[in-house]
Design brief:
homodimer, alpha/beta, Aspartate Aminotransferase, domain 2, 2 domains, seven-stranded mixed beta sheet, about 40% helix
């Protein structure tokens, strides 16, 4: 039985989007390939509220995280973390000998503009990384407000991981002064895994041009230059994902509409949060609760593993807590094309299995 | 009109293989994901004649080239090149500050066991890279014979790019003492672009464990450890490609059969070479001509661009020469699931357009 996925990616993908993966092959050096990327670029600019250059990377989102922090750090990166994917930026920096410091918030608490200001005022840093939506914590950081601080530090390049939020929450890249905003397809965008996307500012490009040892496959400049030349890539990209993404972006922008889509995500998030507060506790500070995934403390003492096994028999899959929280919490994603009725049905099943009233 | 692709990748993909891309999504941390990778691993071991560990990388083949040479070079890499993709190894090494020297053969001539022996006898190198099938030159290097030399140098890790040959020519990895044999899906394997594959020896793994600064997304050890643990990946892989590859490998191994498949490639290669010798000249030394792509010198003085445009109207696409050879040569690929009748029809069209007799 195919399970409905309420895990924070991969998400269920609509059949008509899946079908686009099976588009017959084209040469990656043809006008057709150029046109395909150009269409994707324009639609992603709309979705991201930006005029910046759009690039794709045939990799997971982690690939563009590495591309960004390795290519843009000349002095030292300030890595702000509110969970596992924030920590990943730091691991990536260390693995590439990129000078970096790690600023962690208390569990469930956000990265704040004040924290960022304090760190930047030391003058030690030329890159800031922030996780927009931390799937381990179910927490959304105030990337717009942080951006207003970063704007005051013209030498600082601002990198934002919006892997699990782009398409499920409004991210105004230009107004937030985000230099690289990166995401991947298998989360709120509603496309299968295998492709990452990013917007890249001229400031990020100018910085990267001065950084040595940027590597090859994930060299920001190598990719940007080729895209700027003719909307193509230095090596063969995943055209199946490009066809599916191009199609799904039209559905998101023209069919559902951006505001409708963000509103639907907010509505689903509110349903889960109210339900969670009734029966359990939220992990994250509610003022910063995520629009796309909710982390719920398992206050029952029941086994999360057993819950998920029983849900599996009934056609659903949720996620356990991340890392140390494996049995202490569980996570319900409400992203991409998820419908309210499916979410309500899932919550009913959990109530039934655990005898919640 | 959909053109039949005779370019050296991406290749045309069978409709039933394409359909597998559209398989509904699964969690990448599930038993189902583990089973999928395990099946792929076993089939690739069969195709590659090896007991080594199989890994996939959601990237182009270039991604695994970088993973290999960056992770395995502790002392210095000897890069042997017979064209553009051999040169790429050197660019990758330089872009990562990996010490490397570049040994180029004369145009159209192979990397020989003697060249490799002479270089290794200096004692300066602990990595050798060789391109098995150079698509720019239409040339296949004697990787088995080179492997017999490398065997005599137990500290040397042997990296082979078989991007455009795996699935179209017999590569006996273990008998050839190849430590990392890498490929990608959109060439002779007959799957769309977006995924790379490799076999990795224990010797390569042991070496990489001693190398620092291996990066993150393309860190060989990070990937190998996760695959060895439970056939999963550190970050979300392209499951659409995995479903398609799993299915296509069964077709290759069980339906067509490996020897039949390699024989068919040889037959097609012979047809193109005999035809090319009748009307033009071969670029590569014929003793080392490729099984999967033929580079033909354009001795007519006619425009290759115009030829390809006219072929396009008739439903075919070939490649021009690579780099400097753009108009001086053209390339016809004969790889993956290509049938003899289609190849013969293409050659007839070229004869017709250029008035060859």
């Amino acid at each position: 039985m195919k399970k409905k996925l309420f895990i924070p990616g991969p998400v269920d993908v609509a059949p008509d989007v899946l079908e686009k993966l099976a588009t017959p092959q084209i040469g990656h050096r043809t006008q057709e390939a150029t046109n395909l990327q150009k269409r994707i670029s324009e639609k992603l600019q709309t979705l991201m509220y930006t005029d910046n250059t759009i690039i794709l990377s045939t990799s997971s989102g982690t690939g563009i995280m590495e591309m960004s922090v390795r290519s843009c750090t000349k002095k030292r990166a300030a890595i702000f973390s509110v969970g596992a994917f924030g920590d990943r930026w730091y691991k990536i920096a260390k693995a590439n000998n990129v000078p970096a410091d790690h600023f962690k918030s208390e569990p469930g608490e956000p990265t704040t503009p004040e924290m960022v200001r304090e760190v930047l005022e030391t003058g030690k840093y030329d890159v800031v990384t922030v996780t927009h939506n931390e799937t381990s914590a179910g927490l959304m950081n105030p990337v717009y407000e942080i951006g207003q601080v970063i704007k005051e530090f013209p030498d600082v390049v601002y990198l934002v991981d919006s892997v699990s939020s782009l398409g499920g929450a409004k991210i105004e890249v230009d107004k937030s002064h985000i230099d690289i905003c990166l995401s991947s397809t298998q989360k709120s965008l509603g496309v299968p895994p295998g492709l990452a996307v990013a917007s890249v500012s001229d400031k990020a490009i100018a910085r990267a041009e001065t950084v040595e040892n940027r590597g090859y496959y994930l060299d920001l400049i190598n990719v940007v230059n080729r895209v700027k030349r003719n909307y193509q890539y230095p090596s063969t990209p995943s055209t199946p994902h490009m066809w599916a993404l191009d199609y799904q972006l039209s559905k998101i922008i023209d069919e559902e509409g951006l505001d409708n889509r963000f509103d639907r995500h907010t509505r689903l998030a509110n349903i889960v949060r109210e339900w969670a507060k009734k029966h359990f506790e939220l992990f994250a500070n509610e003022a910063y609760a995520s629009n796309t995934v909710t982390t719920i403390m398992n206050t029952t003492g029941n086994s999360v593993k057993a819950l998920n096994e029983e849900l599996g028999k009934r056609g659903y899959m949720i996620s356990n807590g991340y890392g140390d929280l494996k049995e202490k919490a569980f996570r319900i994603a409400h992203m991409a094309d998820r419908k309210e009725e499916d979410l309500l049905a899932l919550l009913k099943e959990i109530e039934d299995i655990w005898g919640l009233k």
